[in-house]
Please model this.
Amino acid sequence: MTEAQSRLERRRELTRRKVEKRRAERKLRQQQKDSGLAPFPTTTIANGKSEWTSVEQETQARREAVEEQLRVYRNVLPILLQRLKEIPDPRNAKTIKHKSTVLMLYGILAFAFQMMSRREANREMTMPQFQENLKLLFPELDSTPHQDTLNRLLARIQVEKIQDTLIELIERFIRNKKFCRYLVSNRYSIAMDGTQKMARNHCWADECLERHVQHKDEDGTLTPRPQYYVYVLEANLAFPNGVTIPLMSEFLSYTEGDQSSSKQDCELKAFKRLAARIKERFPRLPVQVLLDGLYANGPVMEICRQYHWQFMIVLQDDSLPSVWEEYRGLEKLQTKNRLERAWGNRQQRFRWVNGIEYHWGPNERKRQTIHVVICAESWEEVDGDTAQIQEKTSRHVWISSEPLSRDNVHERCNLGGRHRWAIENNILVEKRHGYQYEHCFSQNWEAMRGYHFLMRLGHLINILAQNTAHLAQMVRRLGVRGLIRLIRETCKGPWLDAERIRLLPSSPQLRLD
Model:
């Protein structure tokens, strides 16, 4: 057999497998429908040609996308610019060319348009057509500054005030009841998770954490070398519909550790600081905290109870052996704590035990009453290689602050605890989908944090825009990154109509889909 014939046979085999897989998937969907199971909706964008058939249609769609995004900006910019204006500017007022609010708005737009670096922002956003469109959309941008000017400003101001501006926007949305329909048990779900922002082989700031990693020398030997990294604990509002709203960031710092015992700052210490900040800013907000297995310990539960927060914490198999022992013993007595139900295309079997006494602290003098629930689920999928229907299984375990029952186990687990993954997806988006989470942007610690807070503001504005009624439909057709790319390219070209922009309301309402 020649090489061409062999290649042809491989193509035929791949085509045959694809056809068999599609047939098996159609058969599986029909079986699930007959059984009363409703598969979860997919978010895959259509694999087809452009729906616009003329330049006029494309022009109209581009204008509508930018105008809808501008409505969100005009809704949040008044309070945003007012709070940014209140940040003290240490520069000489007689020599400055750009106001601090202009500089920071320019930084927010750089992240909203997903510029990859300061250099790209300088190169792209200073193009004549881009500048004209920015001035049309944002009259506050009377001139386009250089990114180095923003960097110098962030290195000297109180960058925490930028994050306070983001928090104040969230407070305003909560007061206006924008998120009421997304609550779980009438509480706001706040997911927290830590992640590494960047790592370097040299100590570029005293606040960097330090660790030793194995380095392979030229002769093949492994030697430990120091590595300096930045770690951040993030807190986001996580809603059951998949919307995740950036809330607060807590940077871990070497200076926050115990210098006398050579102990560095850690995620649990950062959680204590972050929880205190959230409680201070939202003292009466009903909160349910969603945490991973690292936080399954007494001090974290004690803080949540002290703040009157509910919690759902992942319990791993090798964590809290005394709790697992109590669970296995009480499970035989609480035989009615069972529930089987269908959720999407999955069959779920819940088992839970209420009233477990967890002792901790010196001589185990401290005590917490907790409740443990196990969710075992199964579903069917089509194997990509054999086109055979295979059964898949998974198991999830949570510690609940509230007693569980047949009436609330679905809401607390499926709508609450499971959506802790939303913050992981949010961090993935900021790292890999255009927001350059892992990029340093500045070798100054304070400026680096300032860029981080500006990035979170830019991401928040994009999230709000993408979940408005009109743009949500475009996201389904183009995808999130496709929509952002469309808006960015439209602002770079001569697509906009100045008269239409001027006729838009100056203070529009924000209506989420």
Notes: The radius of gyration is 26 Å.
